[in-house]
Amino acid sequence: MKYRKKPVEIEAIQFADDPDTLIKINDVLGLDPVRVSYKDPDNPVLNIPTLEGVMTAQVGDYIIKGVHGEFYPCKPDIFEETYEPSDIQVDGKLLAEKLAAPIKHEIDKQSRYAQRRKGFL
């Protein structure tokens, strides 16, 4: 059986080793405390407590706050394949999704009905 991911809106910030980004990770995502390791000064890593234990993010990785408030790192190429920027938000929800979801559902329903009538489904 095949499954499709439900559309979910997440919060994410791309990790950069600068004070502004670290403040955003703390303030916007709520990852507190923000712990950066400088064992290799040329390659700082961010230590992230996740449901699976502490994981590390390298500069350029995205830090994602999941739907249940959990955190996890994501490589940029995977992030870009999986997520896209959302539009205007109202109360943390995507306004376009609020307005378009019922309309899209009705259009899909009508399209499936028309295809069944033509014998395609």
Description:
The chain is elongated and about 65 Å long. A hairpin with a 7-residue loop joins strand 2 and strand 3 (45-50). The longest helix is centred in the last third of the chain and has 24 residues, at 95-118. It is of the alpha+beta class and 121 residues long. 35% of the residues lie in helices and 26% in strands. The protein is built from three helices and eight strands. The chain has a three-stranded antiparallel β-sheet with strand order 1-5-6. It has a three-stranded antiparallel β-sheet with strand order 2-3-4, with no helix packed on it. A two-stranded antiparallel sheet has the order 7-8. 12% of the residues are buried.
Instruction: Supply the helix-strand structural class.
Output: alpha+beta
DSSP strand content: 25-35%
Helix content: 25-40%
Mean pLDDT: 81
Shape: elongated
Please tally the β strands and state the result. 8
Q: How does the major sheet shape up?
A: 3 strands, antiparallel
User: What's the tally of helices?
Assistant: 3
Helix-strand string: EHEEEEEHEEH
Quickly describe the structure.
By secondary structure, the chain is α+β, with helices and mostly antiparallel strands.
Layout of secondary structure:
Elements: E1 11-14, H1 19-29, E2 35-37, E3 45-50, E4 53-58, E5 62-65, E6 71-74, H2 76-82, E7 89-90, E8 93-94, H3 95-118
Antiparallel strand pairs: 1-5, 2-3, 3-4, 5-6, 7-8
